[in-house]
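User: structure tokens for this one?
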Amino acid sequence: MENPPRYLLLLLLLLPISIVAQSSGNNITSGSFLTARNNDSWTSPSGELAFGFQEITPGGFLLSIWFDKIPEKTVIWSANDGNLVPRGYRVELTSNGEFVLNNPNGEQVWKADSGGTGVSYAAMPDTGNFILASKDSRNLWESFNDPTDTILPTQSLNQGSKLVARFSETYNSSGRFMFVIQTDGNLVLYTTDLPLETDNFAYWYTQTAGSGFQVIFNQSGGVYLIAANRSILNYVVSNEMNVGEDFYQRANLEYDGIFRQYVYPKSAAPGTMAWSSLPKFIPENICTAIGGAASTAAELVGSTATAEWEIIRDPAAIALPGIPGWIPMILGVDADRILKQRCDGRE
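Assistant:
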């Protein structure tokens, strides 16, 4: 039998190291890496979810987790504060147990905080919870414990955890609203003091200081706050529909400050598949919620549920031509970038 041509051996030697390194079951082993190019990713066993680089704008990649079997490729988690990186950046599980995002010069841009303990492998399970684990399979870091603006079924938020809305529908960096389970047990929606992720004023809350323990998103679609004894203190949004495994589900704090739940059929007629917002959301009327919580910060165009409101940064803009005499003021949006939305939370 003839020996294989030398050029074939050379091609084998040039194969990306990550292809070999990922061959141990569904685990992502030491030395594995992804490069920001062509939506490079690691998928979950079912192929429904993916971790990697998604091209959000031409040449701009977001290190993120997304639903991979739907055309929208909806992002549910992102690293690096939602900032895009150009082609050529690389995320790697290094030989010394760090999970890092580096630029082409090898300079660190972002790192998962695994507590300084050596990571042996990573995994992208079908739950959507990307994990970094030790040799004895202890989770040293997981995306469920470092959420961005979205939670998924089976995910929980512990005291001190928060969701931060993205800045806009297309801009993934931190925005103007937070959903926080405080260390005192109160679950609160806040506006933020941009560019800082600090709370400004509360526009919805559960009044559960001293008793609130954890926010749960169950597989039936319920999102609720429990006490330490597992009793339910507050049905945050009661959209339990028993959708089972026929739908993808997510709940997120959106850029307009409203916490909503969505479902997406896994199989349907072509052209009919889309995310559907469920009927319950908080707050029910964001205009009255913000106006009532801080009347000095917001003057509303009206009290009807369908009235539109505008968000601007500078109170002096009330004197500008074409600006109505009402200024709901939420810090962080320039006066020349006016955003409109409905008070009733409908899209």
